[in-house]
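Notes taken during the Thursday session

The instructor put the following on the board and asked us to keep it in front of us for the whole hour. The protein is Lysophospholipase L1-like esterase. We were told not to look anything up and to reason only from what is written here. First, the residues (430 in total):
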Amino acid sequence: MLKTWRRLISASASGLLLFTVLINVHAGPAVAAAAAVAQGTEQDVFRIVALGDSITAGYEPGMTDPSVKPYGYAERLLEQGWYHGRSELKNYGILGLKTAGLLQYTGAIKDSAVITPEAIQPGLSDPRTLQFAALAPQIRTELAAADLITITIGGNDVSSLFLNYKTLTDADFASQLAERLTEYSSNVTALLKNIREVNPQATILLADQYQPAPKIALGASYDKLMNAAAQFTIAAENIAATLNQAGAPLKVAHVAAKFAGVEGSLTHIIGAGAADFHPTQLGYERIATVFAEMQWGEYRTPAVTAMASETAPMSIVVKGKELNTPNKLILKNGQNFLALKDILNAVGADGKWDNKTSSATVIYGGRTVVITIGSKTIKVNGADVAIDTPAFLHKVGKEDKTYLPLAALATGLGFDVNYSSKLRTAFINP
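Then, after some discussion, the predicted structure tokens were revealed:
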């Protein structure tokens, strides 16, 4: 999709973006053990597969540290999924990918065939491409199971044209634009057919192309480039109109409109060093908002301001509802503890307290879980299961409340517990 409408991050060839391949959650020390989903019966999970270029990958200038995980539109979309239930993300954004490259890649995925990076697209600088290429058979399985498939592709197809627009006559610019539009339409139509052969029913959201340079930088050429971007939106809409079917929705995510007129704040083109047309964090949030509103009709943020400081209180979202309770979350031994009663009330579980054994018994979802104060094991259907940090009693007013670690919810009750360090929010889904 909307890549940089300039050269692909040329300075990033060596160690660039050695990110987690299948990024799923930005785990923080506060809930280190809580990100794992408990093993057990198969649960209904909303599955997202993101395909495309560096916008899908979540790239920003300077992301050369392997320890730095991207926080782009796809990761935000995963968080939005957590507001609605168990969700997972598989992100296969490849830096520098063009529509022809994604066509080759989806063809290999369709055929469950291992492919080489050069066969996908010659000269790709993304060091993860070798691994992504080898994963094609696995990705086919993931794609077939997806509920939502998002695609950002096309910006790299026109980057050279937009970089060189000043050197072209209007007639040459129009001619080259027409060629790229034809190629874009052909390739995107074909790659979408590859995807549909693998998954005939998932919702597919195809992003259009934003024009990344502000008017102050382009002057009189601003309208010319905006018109060119609008033609790509029309091309995407025509593709969607051709392939969209009842029960197999294919829609255009109108990202370009969200960037129009505010490009300077949503891209890195204005800033220190060389200009870069990738989205800023605000830009990625705008893109995620478009996708989320199309899928769920809303884009949610916690009551505590997103991207808040480490000293801000953490939010807890249970079954899509933010937990509002006077029993404050407690940080102890690097883990977050919640009042057991609050969780039981939120999910509608039954619980009882035994003074003699200082234990709470919880019955939920076919499980009977016994949580004993001070014990590093809990009983799940009679079997001992280890937990890192034991539950404890905490006095709130005149009452002693049982507090247990978030990790115990996953380990004992089989809940799906995920933590977003960016939102400082724990998402709990039974």
